[in-house]
Amino acid sequence: MDSALYGYFVSYHTNNITMGKSTHFSGQPLYSQVINLLDRSKILQISQQHDGERYVKSFNCWSHLVVMLYAVIMRFDSLREISTSMLAEARKLVHLRLVTMPRRSTLADANKRRPEAIFEEIYRSLYTTYHSRLCSDSRSRKTPKWMKRLQIIDSTTISLFSNLIFKGVGRHPKIGKKKGGIKVHTVIHANEGIPSDIKFTSAATNDSFMLRPGRLSKGDIVAMDRAYINYEKFEELTQRGVIYVTKLLQKSEMRKEIVIELSYKGFSRASDYS
Questions:
Q1: Where is the domain boundary, 120, 137, 168?
Q2: Residue range(s) defining the domain that contains residue 80
Q3: Which of 88, 137, 155, 262 is an S-S bond match for 267, by CB 3.0 to 4.6 Å?
Q4: Which residues contact 127 (CB under 8 A, 6 or more apart)?
Q5: pLDDT by residue (tens digit) across 105-153?
Q6: What sign for the dihedral angle of Cα 191, 68, 43, 187?
Q7: Number of folded domains that form the chain
């Protein structure tokens, strides 16, 4: 009797864990769970407001966003990789809810014609909806009050192999080649895990444009490096009651700033302000 029950249990357990050949998942894949956080109707509405659905037959903004997110997660570097992978794995990507798998030319046309303002607004909408869930306050209530008011501004350069698309900036001190690439500018709140604002520019773009006093309120704290030093904006921050923390300029840079300021005030000779 015991052996019969044992055999029945082993047979039942084995049958349950054996994976069938069906292409449908019994559970939800991780990427499908991420997609479920997106509001398809709202994304299409945003795209229509920016004329992103004009002359589109099947590859709408929703499909475009889903495909590009898939490419980011899979760390693909080219449109050919995206198209080839999705065509090969089409039966396993049913959960993406795509009508057709895009060709390389379709992706290229969509990236060229669909305005980037659409995806910027989608990001802002998602940030407004979910940023409180990613806040450190949800994990611990010991976060200092000043940290909730602290915003950090910084940028990083993504180097490119070619200097044909974006204007280069500076030169490498050893090999003398230009530093061509894309510069990513971000603003992040200290108690959150994701940036509240992101901008992409050429590597030659000065960082100071991201310091916008008009978007800050009294009591806010801003931390930044010396690339954002702009005395006119600092004056506006002071008038608004915003606290800002930055690095000092180097001695040569400070002397240059002093000379320019004194020259502007009417001093014509070095002996006048030495």
A1: 120
A2: 27-120
A3: 262
A4: 194, 196
A5: 989 999 989 998 999 999 989 888 887 776 655 455 577 788 888 999 9
A6: positive
A7: 2
